[in-house]
Each structure stands twice: as structure tokens, then as C-alpha cells.
Amino acid sequence: MLGDKRGRKIDKYVRDYVVFDLETTGTSWANDAVIEISAIKVQKGVVAGNFSTLVNPERPIPFRASEVNHIYDHMVKDAPVFKKALADFDAFVGEEYLVGHNIHTFDMKFIWRDAEEFWGKTIANDYIDTLSLARQCLPQLSHYKLVDLASYYHISTDGAHRALADCSMNQKVFEKLGEELASPAMAGNMKVCPRCGQFLKKRSGKFGEFWGCSGYPACRYTENI
């Protein structure tokens, strides 16, 4: 949903959400453009619908990007521009939580940037980054790419690096991480910031250890151990 304030990153499992993914012309949210946006809506833990469209970035797609996502200029020449695609995505999402992998540092920055440019508003939905959840829930892993998590949970990685396939993969991973979060062992070892909803981490200061919000410096909540 459009609003005046960007949504907050929170660290928890929810049963109603929209998992989404972007494919872009490159890795710079400041300079690159979206060429595909897809989403899957989940209600009470069950897939309820999907949304997917290629996007005309109104610029050539670099070969390096096409090598990864297999999206080429001829495929997007008749696709809608991102102003139309983002409006349709916003209507599909409504007020649901957004879920995605590494969206805190990548995907959210693209949709915030462009919503603000197109309409003078931003995407106000709170969001959950499965990368953050995985690092907390699965500290034994050495790699946390989406395909690594899918392989760990024996989820198919067919079609990886196309947006809708990645959404499907991520939705299944998120449900598995929800099970991890609900386990008694995990519940006893995790704390969430009551102020912003992100994980608290053990930190050390001159007076010893304390709980500090992982959202620091935006959130400076602390708690004694």
C-alpha cells in the first residue's frame, strides 16, 4: 500500500503475506531498473494467488544481467513500464506483509525509490527478510543464498533467477523458517525488540553483555541480560 512512511523490517513468521521478487538490469538500486516483478499471495499459510509481469526498463538490458536471469531486450519490448507494473503490484499486495530474500538491502530499495519518484508516496507495508530469519534460525550454515536454503530444506531450485520461480522457492523456505521459529528450542534462544520488531542480539559494552536491537542505529533499544 502507498503511504507517507516506508514500512518497517520485522523479524517474525506470519500466516498472511505476499512474497515477492524482482529481476533487474544490475545490482545498483540507485542506478539500475526493474525488468520483472512477481509475487505470490499466501492466506493462512496457503497459496491464494500470484502476480507476475515482465517490465520494459526503457533501456538496454546488460548482457551480464541477461546471463543470470535469461531476460533479454526482445522479451520486454512490449511489456508495461514499471509505473504501471508497480501500481498493479501495489493493488495485488494491499495491506499484507511483504516477504522476500535479501529485500532489506535490495528489492525494497527499488520499489521505495520508484514509488517515491512516480507518486511522491512510498510502499508502506511492513516486510520480513528471510535472509535475516535464516541467519538467526540456522547459524550452522555457511551460506545463505536462497538456493542454499532451498537445498537445505530439499526444495526444488528449478527456474532459479526468474522472479516467479524464486517467489515459489522463497515461500516454501519461509514456511520452513516459520516452523524453526515455533520450535521450543528456538523460542528459548531468541528475543525480539518490543520497539521495532527486529531480533535482539547479544552485545558487549564496558559494563558487560546486554541485548541490543539488530536494527541499530535506526533503533537503539537495549535490555539488560
H/E element sequence: EEEEHHHEHEEHHHHEEE
How much β-strand is present in the residues? 15-25%
Strand order of the largest sheet: 4-3-2-5-7
Main beta sheet: strand number and arrangement? Answer: 5 strands, mixed
**Strand tally, please?**
10
Q: Give the overall shape, derived from the CA principal axes.
A: globular
Rg from alpha-carbon coordinates: 18 Å
Low-pLDDT regions: none
User: How many helical stretches?
Assistant: 8
Class by SSE composition: alpha+beta
Helical proportion, percent range: 25-40%
Sequence-ordered SSE layout with sheet pairings:
Elements: E1 2-3, E2 17-24, E3 34-43, E4 46-54, H1 63-69, H2 73-76, H3 82-93, E5 97-100, H4 107-119, E6 122-123, E7 127-129, H5 130-137, H6 146-152, H7 163-182, H8 184-187, E8 200-205, E9 208-213, E10 222-224
Parallel strand pairs: 2-5, 5-7
Antiparallel strand pairs: 1-6, 2-3, 3-4, 8-9, 9-10
Helix pairs in contact: 5-7, 6-7
